[in-house]
Amino acid sequence: MPDVANLLAFALIALGMVLTPGPNMIYLISRSISQGPVAGLVSLGGVALGFVFYMLCAALGITALVLAVPYAYDAIRFAGAIYLLWLAWQAVRPGGRSPFHLRDLPKDSPRKLFAMGFLTNLLNPKIASLYLSLLPQFIDPDVGNVLTQSLALGFTQIAISICVNAMIAVSAGSIAVFLAHHPTWAQIQRWLMGTVLAALAVKMLTDARR
Q1: Structure pTM?
Q2: 26-29, long-range: CB < 8 A, 24+ apart
Q3: Each residue of 35-74: pLDDT tens digit?
Q4: Chain centroid to CA 82: how far?
């Protein structure tokens, strides 16, 4: 199992990233608003399968990388921090639009909803970077088996993402109506998430190499 401090820090990053608008959130919200909460939850099932796919691929690859390249942590740490800074900018940049913006979409079958959720996650650069750039730096070979730590961190991220996205899918319609009438709150949400991600990126850049 990973160190408790590493597990909590990674959980915080996972929470910050799932609350930051991205392809997964936009797809789930759009389906929930246009087709109802059930459609959003079916789509979330496909997204969850994509998480499992990434986790297994990354866990096996990270295990080989850590054992083969002693200085891989530094490169991964800097790449992850730069990506977090990019996400922070996307959250606060002028002209950004809330993912809860009301829109009309054609109705899709449950099978297509699930498949599109899966493909959306597979093609999501945010999730790819989470597993390939961010997750490895929270693994300490001195604590225990690298594969076990990778899986524990991966399942933590998946649990957080499913819980948060499920709540968003169920309440997307109500949130969209609220933010449409209170645009200031949408701006506050964007700046809050941008600040959290920027702070995490600075911490990653200043942390000493393990």
Answers
A1: 0.64
A2: 26/99, 27/116, 27/117, 27/120, 28/117, 28/165, 28/168, 28/169, 28/172, 29/99, 29/100, 29/168, 29/169, 29/172, 29/176
A3: 778 888 998 999 999 889 888 887 777 655 544 555 655 6
A4: 16
Condensed to tens digits (0 to 9), the pLDDT of residues 127-165 reads 777 777 777 778 777 777 878 888 888 899 899 999 998
pLDDT on residue 32: 80
Place of tokens 């297509």: 112
Sequence-ordered list of residues with C-beta below 8 angstroms from that of 142, at least 6 positions apart, any chain? 210
Identify which of 75, 83, 112, 77 has the alpha carbon closest to the alpha carbon of residue 22: 83
Give CA–CA dist 159/125, Å, rounded.
Answer: 19
Task: Name 47's Cβ contacts closer than 8 Å, sequence gap at least 6.
Answer: 24, 27, 28, 117, 118, 120, 121, 161, 165
Q: Express each pLDDT in 114-129 by its tens digit.
A: 998 898 887 776 777 7
